[in-house]
User: What shape does this take?
Amino acid sequence: MLCACSGEQFKLEEAIPQSPESLATRDFSASGISSRTGNGDWESKLEDAQVDEAESTLKEALSLNYEEARALLGRLEYQRGNFDAALQVFQGIDIRLLSPRMSKAISERTRPRKSRSSRGRNVLTGVMSLHSVSLLLEAMLLKANSLAELGRVKEAASECKIILDTVESALPCGTYSEINGDSKLLEMFHRALELLPKLWLQAGSIDEAIASYRRALLRPWNLDPQRLAKVQKDLAATLLYGGVEASIPPESKPIGATFPESSMEESILLLFILMQKVVYGEIEWDPEIMDHLTFALTMCGEFEPLADHVEQVLPGIYNRAERWYFLALCYSAAGQNSTALNLLKKVSGLSESNHKPHLASFLLGAKVCSQDPAESLEGVKFARRVIDASINHNEHMLGQAHKFLGVCYGNAAMISTSDSERVVLHRDSVNSFSHILRAGIEDPEISFQLGLENAVQRNLASAFNQAMVYSKTSSGSSARGWKLLARVASAEQRLVDAEAIIDLALDETESIEQLELLRLKALVQITQEQPKQAIETYRILLALIRGQGENLEKSANKVEAETSIELDAWLDLARLYSSHELWLDADICIRKAKATNFYSARTWHETGRLFEAKQQYQDAIAAFAVSLSIVPDYVPSIISTAGILMKMSSRSLHIAKSFLMSALRLEPTSHEAWSNLGLAYKMEGSVQQAADAFQAAHELELSAPVQGFL
Assistant: This one.
């Protein structure tokens, strides 16, 4: 078998001094051995001979000890894909017995020495060579891989862990320059560092995998930047998606150092480090890093930091349209719609006119504009561009574009000052929504928007039907669907049904949505002239807000929403007490509201109403003026100011009429504005005009919800 090797070559090798523990001083690869022996003879011998015979032949021919011979033979079997045979060979190596000697060899042979003038002085007798250690480490690693290939993953992880324990016991502070001389030893160790957490993940032991990743990063192991970044990225991904909260053990925390308090925070910090490396050119661009960071910051609601990191990405990674779109998504989610809209306008600008239309940007632009009535006409342009580019191509895009087009038309009608233009815009809005339904595109949002648009136009029967469709398609899980149903029912004067709908919705919703529904229920009870029940409902509402206020982990948006609901609750109570001439209680509620938000237009409006109820007209006028200084187009204060002016003096009648016309321009369906305008015409002596105004007020009041649709 191996006796066919060149005798002269082995004589030359035997002349080299070798340590007593291991006579192997070079790396004998499988290919090297094959070149010294006939390939056909070698393969036939391995196929027919037993492991012990092959091992004996290796020991005699190559002057290897027992373990090294098995390591080489096992490597050959592994390279041929015979994992069972390789495992059988590797199991003959008692690695637990050899591990202390290997650790000693690594420690002694990599220890820094001051003098290297004499080669003989550096010869360590009785200590394994680093090559022997490398050979055995490779055998352990191949054994772990063989076990993993055979499905014995936990055993593979245990074998791989022995490699790390062996090297770490020799180098407790990590590697230094002396070990770089044996690149194979370092390579085997690096492979083990990377393999162990993957094995634990395959075994389903997430905690062990995270601990292994942290172990690889805890000390300097001379990993090249790309491999180190791979370990950091994999740890971040495991922390993000592993579904466990793995806190850093106390022994890994130096005194006085600050560490992440959660898996999410640790993951984000790792991804921040990786993004910094990308920006500085230390590692190559990896889109997975940005994907993980996007997910993590989105889950935390930290969209502005995400935008900052997108802006730091070097040019060429994203084209201009994609970069602007990504940034617009971030700023839109952060509530900075104006910034997002400016970026999206760049995508639709002249500089991009020669490029393929970026439909996602146009669609996002339509969505952003649909949330702001002032930008509704710009939203119509965005939606039209999507529709023009999506005809016969993308039905989903087309449906979404028509949806946002309908919303923008509705918003434009709401702020339009022309009655004829308002009618046209309302018609276009309904037509856009109807087009989607006719096309057979199933989208619950369309039913909701169509129901809302019909409700605003006081087509209550159609609005209720569409709201019912939306609630059914959303399985009753949407609070806004319940609220629309209750408001439409209250507009139809079915107050008992409205309260029943709200009670049903309270069982299906939670958190902020429940608070909004409780306030709506209280308003229904007030309309039903049930003040005691309404006060009890407000008491429950305020108690829930106070109870949730103790939660320190709430997001800023949730805190803002709770503050707004609390403010409305105090002001509703102030109006209720004022209507029953309970001035002291009303005044307390006003003070509570001012403590919640002093610069609120509605707070000062209710303050003015309280003064008006007490017939303190000058103070009421001043309070309404403050309200209008905060929000110049606040319709309730405009109407109340006109009412006070008419009460104070008939000489201010023309000024009051001017206020009322402005209110109707802003809100044509306000029955209070029409009623006050009728009074103004009556005082003026214009009987027919007064009658028309009173009739309009009466009809609108009959179809008015307890809470505005918008």
About this structure: Residues 1-50, 115-121 have pLDDT under 50 and may be disordered. Residues 556-579 form the longest helix (24 residues).
